[in-house]
Amino acid sequence: MTSQPSIESRGEVSFAVAKAAKLHRQRADEILSELGLHVGQEMLLNVLWTQGEMTQTELANRLEIQPATLTVALRRLEKSGLIVRSRDPEDQRVSRVQPSFKSGELRDGVMLAWARLERETVQNLSEAEQNMLTILLNKVADGLSAD
């Protein structure tokens, strides 16, 4: 009896990307949990740290996520005291978001965590392979985001 091909054998590249992405996210979660953060929260905070106060819509666009997804993330960060939300004085329908002082205390730790994750991610690659991987993953992302 012949066995059916597996997903792995029908899509080697997709399987490898999915496996690497899963392991990368798990490792990121482990490292960030040491700071009391969940994956994605560090990126949101990083945008606020570098760009400063912005509207929720601007933040969702910058992070390329749905506003509803952002609202959930902001609720958690606000509850943790890491961001401050306020109404725009010119338009009460608009919510503005800024990093709290408390979140600033995490900034160095987040940068160290990402540096550690980067080291672990590329530890088996030469510099040339790292550069090529970056190019190839960006091409994959462009292909997947094409309409």
How many extended strands? 3
CATH class: Mainly Alpha
- What is the overall pLDDT average? 92
Radius of gyration: 19 Å
By CATH, the architecture is named Orthogonal Bundle
What count of structural domains? Answer: 1
**Strand arrangement, largest sheet?**
1-3-2
Given the C-alpha coordinates, what overall shape results? globular
Compact overview of the structure:
The protein is mainly α. It is built from eight helices and three strands; from the N terminus they run H-H-H-E-H-H-E-E-H-H-H. A hairpin with a 7-residue loop joins strand 2 (83-87) and strand 3.
What does the model show?
The chain is mainly alpha-helical. It has a single domain, classed as Winged helix-like DNA-binding domain superfamily/Winged helix DNA-binding domain (Arc Repressor Mutant, subunit A), CATH 1.10.10. The chain has helices at residues 7-10, 12-33, 41-51, 56-63, 67-79, 101-104, 107-122, 127-145, and strands at 54-55, 83-87, 95-99. It has a 3-stranded antiparallel beta sheet with strand order 1-3-2. The model has no long low-confidence stretch (mean pLDDT 92).
Write the layout of secondary structure elements.
Layout: H1 7-10, H2 12-33, H3 41-51, E1 54-55, H4 56-63, H5 67-79, E2 83-87, E3 95-99, H6 101-104, H7 107-122, H8 127-145
Antiparallel strand pairs: 1-3, 2-3
Helix pairs in contact: 2-7
GO molecular function, one term: DNA-binding transcription factor activity
InterPro entries: ArsR-like_HTH (IPR011991), HTH_MarR-typ (IPR000835), WH-like_DNA-bd_sf (IPR036388), WH_DNA-bd_sf (IPR036390)
Domain HTH marR-type: 10-142
